[in-house]
Design a protein that fits this description.
With 395 residues, the protein is mainly beta. It is built from 4 helices and 21 strands. The strands form 2 sheets. Strands 1-3-4-5-6-8-9-10-11-12-13-14-15-19-20-21 form a 16-stranded antiparallel beta barrel. It has a two-stranded antiparallel sheet with strand order 17-18.
C-alpha cells in the first residue's frame, strides 16, 4: 500500500487531471545494489599482468520503475511500464527515461502483446534460474560465457562490427513482444526486433533483425526454460548468428540446484560457422538468514571455421576467441563462491570470491562494470581473480 501511495504522489506531480483519477493502478518498484570489490589478472603468452584495482560499483542490478494497467472492459486491459537505471555509485546511468524494460501494450485472455524495449525471451530463460540472485555473483561472468556478453539498447539498429553485436543476452529496443497465458505452469514468449537499421540506399546491404522464442515452466519445486534467438545481419550483410539456451532448477527444502546449457553459432563470410557449447551448474543452501551459494561455468573450445571473420582481420567474435587460425585451447572456466546474510526479506549483505581461467588461446572476459579493461591479444590466456562485499535492497 505504501508503494502505491508513493507512486501516486510521484505521478500526480506530473500527470494531467485525467490521469490523476486512477493513482491506485500505478506501482513503484526497484532494486539498488552496490559493492566494493578487488580485481586483478595474470598475463599469459608474454603479455603483462592486469594491475589490481579496487572498485566501488553497482553490478547491473540497479533500477527504479513504474508500472500500471487500466481496465478497458471485456477482460481487456492497457498495460505499461517505464524502467530506468539508478546506479548507487552514480555511474552507468542515463538521463533518458525508459533505458531499461519499458513498453506499452494490451493484455487479456490471449496473453500480453506490447511494443518497446524488453529483455529477449532467451535472456529471460536464464534469469528465472539464478542461484546468485542476479548480481550477487560479483563480476558478471554468467553472461560472458553462456551468452557471449550482455547488452541493452536500441537493437537492432546496429553498425557492422560493433562490439555488442555478438551478445545474445539482450534488452531489445524497437521490438514487438508476446507472452502467452500460463497453462498448468507452461508459457510461451516471442520477440521480433524491427529492421530499422537496414541500409536504405545500398543494394544488398545490411538488413539487421532479431527473432526470439522461448518456452518456460514454473510449478512446485521445478523451474525450467528453453530459448532460441537469431540475429540476422548484426555483424554484417549475409551473416546470420543464432543461440539456444536451456535452464532448469529444482528446490527441495533449504536446497536449490541449478543447471544451464547453451550453444553459440556465428556465421563467417567465407569459411562456414563458428560454434561453441557452454554449461553452468550451481546451487544454494539456506540456513535461517544465511545463504551459501556456488556456481561453476565452462566455455568449450570453439569449433568449425577459423577464417573469414567479419570485420576483416578480426581474431575474435566477442568472447568467442579464434587465434592463430586454430580453435584449440579456446575454452575457459569461471567459478564463484558466495555467502549472503538476509537482514530482511528485501535486504541482504554478501561477500564473494571467484576465479576466471582462460585457456592459452581464449579471451573470455567479465562483462559490465567488472570487465578487465584488457582487449585483443593482450587478453589471450589471461586468468583473473576477484573478491568483494556488497549490499542489495529491493522495493
Amino acid at each position: 500500500m505504501q508503494k502505491k501511495l508513493l507512486a501516486a504522489a510521484v505521478v500526480s506531480a506530473f500527470a494531467a487531471p485525467v490521469a490523476f483519477a486512477q493513482p491506485a493502478n500505478v506501482t513503484l518498484y526497484g532494486s539498488l545494489q552496490t559493492e566494493i570489490f578487488s580485481l586483478k589478472g595474470t598475463g599469459a603468452n608474454g603479455n603483462p599482468n592486469r594491475a589490481q584495482t579496487n572498485n566501488i560499483s553497482s553490478p547491473g542490478v540497479f533500477f527504479i520503475g513504474f508500472r500500471g494497467q487500466e481496465s478497458l472492459g471485456g477482460g481487456l486491459s492497457a498495460i505499461w511500464q517505464i524502467e530506468q537505471g539508478a546506479a548507487a555509485d552514480g555511474t552507468g546511468t542515463s538521463s533518458t527515461w525508459g533505458g531499461r524494460n519499458t513498453f506499452l501494450g494490451l493484455s487479456g485472455g490471449f496473453g500480453r502483446a506490447y511494443v518497446g524495449l524488453m529483455d529477449s525471451p532467451l535472456k529471460r530463460v536464464l534469469s528465472i534460474n539464478n542461484s546468485m540472485r542476479n548480481g550477487l555473483t560479483g563480476p558478471q561472468g554468467m553472461n560472458s560465457i553462456l551468452n557471449n556478453g550482455d547488452t541493452s539498447g536500441a537493437d537492432p539498429f546496429v553498425s557492422s562490427g560493433a562490439g555488442n553485436n555478438s551478445a545474445f543476452s539482450r534488452r531489445t529496443g524497437n521490438s514487438f513482444n508476446y507472452d502467452s497465458p500460463v497453462f498448468s505452469g507452461f508459457s510461451v514468449h516471442a520477440q521480433y526486433g524491427a529492421n530499422e537499421g537496414r541500409a536504405l540506399t545500398v543494394a544488398g546491404g545490411q538488413n539487421p533483425a532479431l527473432y526470439g522464442l522461448s518456452a518456460m515452466y514454473s510449478a512446485g519445486p521445478i523451474r525450467a526454460g528453453l530459448g532460441w534467438q537469431e540475429h540476422k545481419d548484426y555483424r554484417g550483410a549475409g551473416l546470420t548468428d543464432s543461440s539456444m539456451l536451456a535452464s532448469a532448477s529444482y528446490t527441495s527444502g533449504p536446497f536449490m540446484v541449478q543447471g544451464a546449457y547453451s550453444t553459440l553459432n556465428y556465421a563467417t563470410a567465407a569459411s562456414g560457422d563458428i560454434k561453441r557449447s557452454n554449461y553452468l551448474i550451481g546451487g544454494q543452501y539456506s540456513m535461517g538468514a544465511h545463504r551459501f551459494r556456488a556456481q561453476y561455468q565452462v566455455a568449450g573450445d570453439t569449433k568449425g571455421a577459423v577464417g573469414g571473420l567479419t570485420p576483416a582481420g578480426s581474431t575474435a567474435i566477442g568472447n568467442v576467441a579464434i587465434f592463430n587460425a586454430s580453435g584449440a585451447d579456446t575454452g575457459a572456466t569461471i567459478w564463484h563462491l558466495n555467502y549472503g546474510y538476509a537482514l530482511s526479506k528485501r535486504t541482504e549483505v554478501y561477500g564473494y570470491y571467484g576465479k576466471l581461467d582462460n585457456d592459452n588461446n581464449a579471451r573470455v572476459n567479465f562483462s559490465g562494470s567488472a570487465a578487465l579493461g584488457i582487449s585483443g591479444n593482450a587478453l589471450r590466456g589471461m586468468d583473473a581473480t576477484f573478491y568483494g562485499v556488497g549490499i542489495a535492497h529491493t522495493f
